[in-house]
Design brief:
homodimer; Methanol Dehydrogenase, Chain A; 1 helix
């Protein structure tokens, strides 16, 4: 009897230990691209809480967080969509929803998630609780399916995305998620390869691979349609070979200026948001991949494509000068800032480490072991439009 | 023995039930000003999770959240500083640190909290874990203690605040919290009565009660010192009696424009942030108290002092027109937006209710009973500078 009581006690202690209450505002996910796994991390203690495996092909994974910051929805390259529980460190639900997927979004109310698909193209919508499919928008133009990229949620329960093959930008009103209402902006630009929405949710920008420039949609003035900005920003110059397409989610906003990676060029472009004209070009150490502003906009951090992918450069925004060049590790794939900008975590894939750096002193704060780490995502994203 | 085992089982089941895991990203606090209590709410279900009592005088309470979004630090008017646990719904620590306090801040790294005091004046710093006092900055100017108001954390582990009596703005570098390094900006303006930091943490603004205008400090250019902006915005007009001082934390930023309450006047002032000049005045239904932009900056919501404190007006930002006047309840004291702006919660003190409204349709979504509710605070604030 005593043994039984002890066993009961042990079992309940164990159960309770697993359920120890904790906040979810300081959690993060590190994608381990080669092993189809993620690490759940505590960003305050800079410590690993656990690993979740079985997530499929994460070679180009992205993710969004639930509004309670308990769950992450991970979009795998293989079309897998996994809902993982950061508190219990397990897969809460998982489906394979397409053949090839490039990213996703979550509705501003948190009730649906959307996946942007390369194959078979289009956008699918899922219930955020169960992952049951709710709706689909096939990206058909003249009978041809288009790859969908640059998906972002917008104020007013809307979703905006680009059609790579068709060169269009579509805006979906998801007030009734089961019957999306779609407005199409044709001839937005040739081969949009990624897109972003500005922090305030007003402007959507798509980068164009098929022509020199960007496509802009002002969500406060839809009647004006899309327009081209920065036409010919590389015009008259010999294009460089592109070693890695820059990521536009990595575009940055600092005050009135946007900082963005020039495709193929060793330059960061500065665009004045007031007139959407080029304000400056900042020479950098390689082809920029992510160009990310510290949350206060005072610094912009840049990583690079091969062969300069071991470097990070830090731009001081008011002077537009590079104030620091760092070499924290091999194959720096991604950067993520703490929500108030005090530190940044960078993934060094070929060192199997994530490195935390102080953004004021540039001192190294911690090294966290991870298997071929790529994307780093902190739960504070849950409260930011377009992330 | 069986009874004992049953008791053990019961106790552990109870403990476990209380510890059911949940995210903290969608929690909120409603201040019940008359009873010294707060409600912990689930903003997704729009439901009360529990009440925490024994928090002293909350008649002008404000609060900040820990970066893990598990704890709230509540600054009571009586100098009480309470750390409450949103998950376990209890007081985790409580001190009375001054005779009269007006607000506080939390360090960007989350390691300290600061209280701004009227009586005896100055700022005190406390360990965020234990509430042990770490440091104090007495606000002494020419031997006289000054009330401290408008306290806000700034990038680079700094804190900025205003001295009401002395008319100064001080910037404290808290890199070593035990030995703050203070830079003083003298003659900033007469009787600063509240202050705020812009969303990007670059500009600090203090409202002045002793003169017509505002004081501005550019944290990117400290050498320039403070300057006066909007001088004489009420000049040449008969001042109206002021029924309630507007709250500057309620100042709003929408794109390049700041929307702020004119003291005593039935107007919202629009300031162009590029040159800090007046861009427009929008006539409203009373003396504005809080003027708060929806997170995407498309709308600005306004509540009012007596006798118009049952009204809310909604300004459409691009047209600067009032698009809606609402009368949701009696004595509307505060408004808080969901982090992506889909809904807003408003406290109707004299109806003992908090009302959730859809910001697109203005439909009422829920009424939540609360005892004389005033401030409403959602945990998403944890990741915003100056909130």
């Amino acid at each position: 009897m005593k043994r039984l009581a002890a066993l009961v006690l042990f079992l309940f202690l164990s159960a309770c230990a697993g359920l120890e209450p904790r906040g979810t505002g300081d959690l993060g996910i590190i994608i381990e691209r080669a092993t189809g796994s993620v690490l759940v991390v505590d960003t305050t203690k800079r410590a690993i809480l656990g690993r979740i495996e079985g997530l499929g092909d994460l070679s180009h994974a992205s993710m969004v967080f639930s509004r309670d910051q308990r769950y992450a929805y991970i979009f795998g390259r293989d079309g897998g969509l996994s809902k993982v529980d950061l508190l219990e460190r397990r897969i809460a639900a998982r489906i394979v929803q397409a053949g090839n997927s490039i990213g996703g979004a979550i509705g501003p109310k948190g009730d649906w998630v959307a996946a942007a698909n390369y194959e078979p193209g289009g956008v699918k919508f899922f219930d955020a609780a169960s992952l049951a499919q709710l709706a689909e928008i096939p990206a058909l133009v003249d009978g041809k399916a288009s790859k969908v990229i640059g998906i972002a949620e917008a104020p007013g329960n809307r979703l905006v995305f680009s059609l790579y093959d068709a060169g269009e930008i579509w805006l979906a009103d998801m007030t009734d998620v089961k019957t999306p209402w779609v407005r199409k902006f044709k001839q937005a630009g040739q081969l949009p390869y990624d897109g972003l929405i500005t922090y305030d949710g007003r402007h959507y920008l798509a980068g164009l691979f098929g022509e020199d420039g960007l496509a802009l949609l002002d969500l406060w003035n839809l009647e004006a349609g899309t327009k081209k900005i920065m036409p010919g920003y590389g015009k008259g110059q010999e294009p460089l070979p592109v070693y890695k397409m820059p990521h536009l989610r990595g575009w940055s906003q600092a005050g009135d200026e946007m900082f963005l990676p020039a495709i193929g060029r060793h330059e960061v472009l500065v665009v004045d948001r007031r007139g959407w004209k080029e304000a400056a070009r900042i020479p950098v150490a390689g082809q920029p991949v992510f160009v990310i502003a510290r949350p206060d906009g005072r610094q912009v951090w840049v990583n690079f494509a091969l062969p300069n992918n071991g470097l990070i450069q830090v731009i001081d925004v008011p002077t537009r000068q590079i104030v620091k060049t760092l070499k924290p590790g091999k194959a720096i794939l991604h950067l993520e800032f703490a929500s108030k900008g005090t530190e940044v975590w960078v993934s060094a894939r070929d060192d199997d480490q994530v490195i935390a750096l102080d953004t004021e002193t540039f001192a190294e704060l911690a090294r966290i072991p991870a298997q071929k780490p790529s994307g780093i995502f902190f739960t504070s994203r849950a409260h930011r439009l377009g992330l």
